[in-house]
Recover the amino acids of this structure.
């Protein structure tokens, strides 16, 4: 999936609770207020304000070094914020050491104890609470059942595959039923196929146990697949927080639009802005771009029109109405991806536009090929106008 | 490609009628050609080169460890005589009734004396005790030191490591002598303590067991710190975080996770301190009192003062045997664990 449509986990789904982030009466499980974390003059987390609700699968998404892991470690208690407060379930976490927090973490390296068996690893958290040996063994058994490792309990970590280690780490972090589970790049070390399979298992486990997960990832597909909401981070700040659909369809900046999915950007100036529409004139596109969603802008202001490749139609004949949202050019490259093809079309202005189209018919019957003159057009709902 | 007619080069030149039998042989069996011989030589080198590489350290050990050991072993079964060298030969020709005998006389009295005379037994036990206590004290100093070093910022670690190794650049003997200046009644330590008003009378430390402990802990600390630091340093720091995250207080997590995983390094460090400390001569001689009885010193006295080489050799052999036991046990332990900790 290179150009994801609205993922299944995001579609209106009866299983998901009514979106608590839109409910003003809901109390968040985690309140992060103006949190700043500085290391030796370097600001890792810069004034983050977040509310995360019970039952959420919340993703912190961003490139490496954007502060997402530091934010996770602040929640776990391995780091103390320079300023700001973190509340978990109504309790201020300032000064609460990590071993007393109702939070567990799954580490990127898995951090399995090499001298213990799988069972001892999973039971470690309960042993610290002096739970009886019989109770530990019962709950470890249950947990191994849940992650489908029931017959590997006596093995040691070095005898496990990467996927099995990942499950042990998950089981170990889940056994205390934490109010909040933090996952630091949990699937980063797995190969692609296993990763996709495990993503769905993670969502299933999270829903089965009714827990709240916060996951750190730099993989946008992963965040889109598993999350209820995503916070996009850049240089220590959260630049946009929203559902995967909101993030993908209505990015609030070029940074977000470019980070999640592929996008064509036309730079231009606002010609006309209303409550329900904006027109952008871009010399790069050679046509006016009409968007049916208003923004707060004045005519003449610099703006960017962003259009996803899969929202553009491609054809060898011009559309009926070619006044708006229609450009023409020549195909100079075609990337065949099996299920879909991405056409790289060079406009007369020199700008290259990417268009992806599903390959509904077989390749031999492909109607559009290299050097063809093509028209590209899109509906007013396809584009987003961004001011930065 | 398609325009060219296929011209396959002949892979094998068939022997024409005018070629000699030898030429055919040379062409078909590489063994007889120059390159064939070269190839065979290289093959031989490859096969025996491995043996050569392994043989070198064996040769070294044989020459500089096994041979002296055998000489000492032989000496320990000799009789003491007042001569140069001060021992009787083991092997001798005996002429009797016109017949010649090759006689080998093994004298066990040296070993018997070691167990009969309580001096040696006491010296042995005392050495083991002092060495064990000193090893424990060294471990107590080394654990927090190695832990702090492994958690220091990366750019500091090389410097800290350097500081641990730096004392080796000065002679061991001089460093032990320096401790006399520090510990003696009118020495630096007492002067400082009296100056600070902590004590009014100088402490008697020099020429006691305490001075020996201080000397051993100081001298052997690097041997303990380095292997422990190496095991701590390569450990994934998230292991201890995972333990703390799962509800283990940090101190407990340090013992149950960090120390437990570093156990092979800790045992190695303990052996590296315990074994040489048990046979230590310089430190008890310079810092210890006349009543500090250690086997290394006994050995020295036996050898140089009493010129009883055979007895001194017997002491050395028994010491070696006694110290081999913990090493063998440790190696067995390591072998049994196999790769369990290697692939952490």
């Amino acid at each position: 999936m290179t150009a994801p449509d609205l993922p299944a986990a995001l579609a209106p789904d009866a299983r998901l609770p009514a979106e608590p982030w839109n409910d003003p009466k809901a109390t968040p499980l985690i309140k992060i207020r103006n949190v700043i974390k500085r290391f030796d003059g370097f600001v890792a987390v810069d004034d983050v304000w977040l509310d995360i609700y019970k039952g959420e699968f919340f993703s912190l998404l961003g490139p490496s070094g954007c502060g997402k892991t530091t934010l996770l470690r602040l929640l776990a208690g391995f780091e103390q914020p320079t300023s700001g407060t973190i509340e978990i379930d109504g309790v201020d976490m300032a000064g609460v050491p990590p071993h007393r927090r109702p939070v567990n973490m799954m580490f990127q390296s898995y951090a399995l104890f090499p001298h213990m068996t799988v069972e001892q690893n999973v039971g470690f958290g309960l042993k610290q609470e002096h739970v009886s040996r019989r109770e530990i063994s019962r709950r470890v058994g249950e947990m191994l059942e849940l992650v489908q490792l029931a017959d590997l309990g006596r093995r040691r970590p070095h005898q496990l595959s990467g996927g099995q280690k990942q499950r042990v780490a998950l089981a170990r972090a889940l056994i205390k039923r934490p109010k909040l589970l933090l996952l630091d790049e949990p699937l980063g070390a797995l190969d692609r196929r296993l990763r996709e399979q495990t993503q769905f298992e993670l969502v299933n486990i999270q829903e089965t146990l009714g827990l709240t997960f916060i996951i750190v990832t730099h993989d946008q597909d992963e965040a889109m697949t598993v999350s209820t909401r995503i916070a996009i981070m850049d240089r220590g700040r959260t630049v946009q927080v929203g559902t995967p659909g909101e993030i993908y369809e209505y990015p609030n900046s070029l940074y977000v639009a470019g980070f999640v999915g592929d996008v064509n950007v036309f730079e231009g100036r606002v010609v006309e802005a209303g409550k329900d529409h904006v027109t952008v004139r871009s010399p790069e596109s050679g046509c006016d771009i009409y968007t049916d969603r208003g923004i707060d802008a004045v005519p003449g202001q610099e703006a960017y029109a962003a259009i996803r490749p899969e929202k553009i139609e491609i054809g060898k004949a011009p559309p009926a109405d070619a006044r708006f949202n229609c450009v023409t050019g020549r195909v100079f490259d075609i990337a065949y991806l099996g299920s879909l093809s991405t056409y790289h079309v060079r406009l007369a202005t020199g700008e290259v536009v990417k268009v992806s189209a599903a390959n509904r018919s077989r390749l031999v019957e492909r109607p559009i090929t290299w050097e063809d003159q093509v028209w590209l057009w899109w509906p007013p709902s396809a584009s987003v106008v961004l001011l930065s | 490609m398609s325009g060219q007619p296929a011209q396959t080069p002949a892979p094998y030149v068939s022997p024409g009628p005018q070629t000699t039998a030898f030429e055919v042989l040379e062409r078909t069996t590489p063994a007889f050609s120059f390159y064939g011989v070269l190839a065979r030589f290289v093959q031989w080198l490859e096969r025996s080169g491995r043996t050569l590489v392994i043989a070198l350290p064996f040769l070294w050990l044989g020459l500089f460890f096994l041979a002296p050991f055998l000489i000492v072993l032989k000496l320990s079964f000799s009789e003491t005589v007042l001569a140069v060298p001060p021992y009787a030969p083991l092997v001798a020709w005996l002429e009797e009734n016109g017949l010649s005998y090759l006689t080998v006389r093994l004298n066990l009295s040296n070993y018997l004396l070691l167990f009969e005379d309580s001096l040696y037994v006491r010296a042995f036990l005392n050495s083991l005790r002092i060495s064990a206590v000193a090893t424990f004290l060294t471990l107590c100093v080394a654990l927090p030191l190695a832990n702090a070093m492994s958690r220091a910022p990366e750019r500091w670690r090389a410097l800290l490591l350097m500081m641990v190794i730096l004392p080796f650049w000065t002679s061991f003997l001089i460093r032990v002598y320096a401790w006399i200046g520090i510990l003696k009644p009118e020495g630096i330590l007492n002067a400082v303590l009296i100056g600070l008003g902590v004590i009014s009378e100088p402490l008697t430390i020099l020429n006691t067991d305490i001075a020996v402990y201080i000397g051993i802990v100081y001298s052997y600390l690097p041997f303990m710190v380095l292997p422990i630091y190496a095991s701590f340093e390569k450990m994934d720091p998230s292991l201890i975080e995972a333990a703390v995250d799962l509800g283990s207080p940090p101190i407990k997590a340090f013992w149950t996770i960090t120390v437990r995983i570093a156990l092979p390094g800790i045992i190695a460090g303990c052996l590296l301190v315990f074994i040489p400390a048990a046979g230590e001569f310089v430190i008890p001689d310079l810092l210890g009192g006349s009543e500090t009885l250690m086997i290394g010193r006994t050995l020295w006295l036996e050898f140089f003062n009493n010129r009883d080489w055979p007895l001194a050799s017997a002491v050395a052999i028994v010491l070696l045997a006694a110290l081999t036991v913990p090493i063998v046990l440790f190696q067995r332990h390591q072998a049994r664990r196999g790769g369990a900790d290697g692939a952490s």
User: Anything to note?
Assistant: The domain at 262-387 of chain A is CATH 2.40.50.140 (OB fold (Dihydrolipoamide Acetyltransferase, E2P)).
